[in-house]
Amino acid sequence: MRVRLEVVVLFCLFSVPPSVVRADPLIDQAISAYEDADFQAALDAFNEAAANGDLSIEELLQLFEMRALVSHALNDDAGMMEDLRRLAAVRPTYRLGRLSPPPMHNAFNEALKANGSLGAELRIEERTMHGGPSIVASVVRAPQGLVGRVDLQCLVRSGHKPVLRTSEGVQTELALPKPGDHDGCQATARTQQGTILLSASIEGSNAKSASEIFEMPEYQAQTDRSRKKKKWPWYVAAAAVAVTAGVVTGVVLSKRSKDSQATPGGVAVNW
Question: What does the H/E/C string look like for the chain?
Answer without folding.
Answer: CCCCHHHHHHHHCCCCCCCCCCCCHHHHHHHHHHHCCCHHHHHHHHHHHHHHCCECHHHHHHHHHHHHHHHHHCCCHHHHHHHHHHHHHHCCCCCCCCCCCHHHHHHHHHHHHHCCCCCCEEEEEEEEECCEEEEEEEEECCCCCCCCEEEEEEEECCCCEEEEEEEECCEEEEECCCCCCEEEEEEEEECCCCCEEEEEEECCCCCCCHHHHCCCCCCCCCCCCCCCCCCCCCCCCCCCCCCCCCCCCCCCCCCCCCCCCCCCCCECCCC
